[in-house]
Specification:
By secondary structure, the chain is mainly α. It is 61% helix and 4% strand. The chain folds into four domains: 48 residues, no CATH class; 45 residues, no CATH class; 30 residues; 58 residues. It is built from seven helices and four strands; from the N terminus they run βααβαββαααα. β3 and β4 form a beta hairpin.
Length: 194
């Protein structure tokens, strides 16, 4: 028969607060047996989500070489930060810098971030979504104006040339629709300088 633990001993061995264990019991994530005790085999199981402190503890254990069965490369279904960092470094996708170079790079990026924040607050920058919305509305207004143009100027041209109004308006509408269809095929690019 497996070892039986009260709530406080279970929490101590799990490395968490008793309140967390009691909440898990209330939620049905942990179950007390008829004797009011918890099964010790539930320690290290997936009954709780890891928090930063638990993940950091797992990362420290990995650095110091301690063997803790509840905190290895993963805690529950979540990889520890140290394991993810090591995998990222090992993949070659990161440039390892000495402290001075890393500090200089950090300060450069912080300065650029501050500059961006300043330009946003000074209204020197426009959000992409706002720019796209403005361009869309302008293009819609232009399209609507062009669609109305044949019926507005067709009768005037027909009177000047002494031809049928319907014929001129129909022909103008056809050419305007073609032109708008050609213009509608291209998309605005907000990336790059040219």
């Amino acid at each position: 028969m497996s070892e039986r633990l009260n709530v406080s001993e279970f929490a101590r061995r799990e490395g968490c607060d008793e309140k967390q264990v009691r909440r898990a019991i209330t939620k049905g994530l942990l179950r007390k047996d008829t004797d009011g005790l918890l099964d010790a085999t539930l320690i290290g199981s997936n009954w709780r989500k890891p928090n930063r402190r638990t993940l950091a503890k797992g990362a420290n254990n990995q650095r110091t070489g301690e063997n803790n069965p509840t905190l290895s490369e993963t805690v529950g279904d979540v990889e520890t930060g140290a394991f993810v960092a090591r995998r990222f470094v090992d993949s070659g996708g990161v440039e390892l810098l000495d402290y001075k170079a890393a500090l200089a790079k950090k300060e450069t990026y912080l300065a650029l971030l501050r500059q961006l924040e300043y330009e946003q607050k000074a209204d020197a920058l426009i959000e992409m979504s706002v720019a796209k919305e403005v361009v869309f509305e302008l293009c819609r207004e232009q399209r609507d104006a062009w669609l109305a143009w044949p019926s507005r100027v067709g009768p005037l041209i027909a009177a000047d040339l002494g031809v049928d109004v319907d014929l001129i308006t129909t022909r103008l509408s056809e050419y305007v629709y073609r032109q708008l269809a050609e213009l509608g095929e291209s998309e605005a690019s907000f990336i790059g300088g040219s």
